[in-house]
Amino acid sequence: MNHPPPAAPVAIVGAGSIGVAFALVFSRAGLPVRMWDPDGGRRTAVPIEARARLEDLASHSLLAEAVDAILGRIAVFDELGSAVEGAQHVQECAPERVELKQELFAELDRRAPPEAVLASSSSFLPASSFAAGLPGQARCLVAHPGNPPYLIPVIEIVPAPFTDEAAVLCAEALLARVGLTPVRVRREVEGFIFNRLQGALLREAYCLVRDGVASVEDVDRVVRDGLGRRWAHIGPFETADLNTRGGIAAHAERMGPSYARMGAERGQADPWTPELVAQVERERRAILPAEEWEARVAWRDRVLMAALKARQGA
Q1: DSSP label at residue 22
Q2: I need a surface site. Which of 18, 84, 212, 236 has the fewest CB within 10 A?
Q3: Domain boundary among 122, 150, 184
Q4: Best CA proximity match to 288, nearest among 254, 239, 230, 222
């Protein structure tokens, strides 16, 4: 009887909270995981922390296998070279310091198999800042996850101008196969998409507290019991599209001036020009034709009702 060849391992460099979380993502999907961290204490903590998180997932019926089976695919190594040997993908999860990542990626480029993709979990730093000029720069990119990635599946794929398209496609395919939702960032910007959106909200939240408009708890309550309930199911563009009869173009016409004035209060001058609104309108109508708008509004309300019922039953 012929058995399929074993899957090539995934290497995780850095055993902090994100590194351990990534280990669960890959091992839960059936892949062998090799982990390394320069700190012996972190290496020792990996099986303890991984088991605790897996047991929490099991208690919510979110595992298809026994905890020990998943843990059995995670190995911790004392040497970086041993951890990356034979890896098909290396996920770097080191602290957000450009000098550290420069040194680490230079070493990974020397030690990892030439066909392995080298991906950073960087939250803000683009690959151009730490991988430019390496012999293997074409296989380097950012794969920035939500935290924790075993619960928040979106992962931003951010190639540098020098990243080869084959490496991007390889990373996207692997990450989709293990249950994540890759989103390609079309060009390098600090903070990518996730943290730019999160940062915009957080900057305004700080300003509202500073200006005596609201307390910290009030801001959190508005997001938790207001914006967050919608955003759990639809994003900001779809929210605006469904909130105004006539869709997002009508929303921009009615609400755009008010948003522009609020932005001006913060020294921000980014008007929603007619050309920009038209682009957003075209993309939204390609996703949701105008004749399906009413049905989608009804769907939105039903998913909010289901979420409310689930909250009340919790």
Answers
A1: H
A2: 212
A3: 184
A4: 239
Same domain, 260 and 201: yes
CB 97 within 8 A of CB 18: no
C-alpha closest to that of 46 among 58, 37, 59: 37
- What's residue 284's pLDDT? 98
Residue pointed to by tokens 């605790």? 52
- Structural domain ending residue among the three candidates 120, 153, 184: 184
The token pair that represents 301 in the structure block: 């309300």
Q: Which residue has the tokens 């979110």?
A: 62
Number of domains in the chain: 2
pLDDT given for residue 5 in this prediction:
52
* CB 153, CB 144: distance < 8 Å: no
| Axis crossing angle, helix 17-28 with helix 40-59, rounded to the nearest 10 | 50
Q: Cβ-count burial of 23 within 10 angstroms (0-12 exposed, 13-18 middle, 19+ buried)?
A: buried
Residue 51: domain span: 10-184
pTM above threshold 0.90: yes
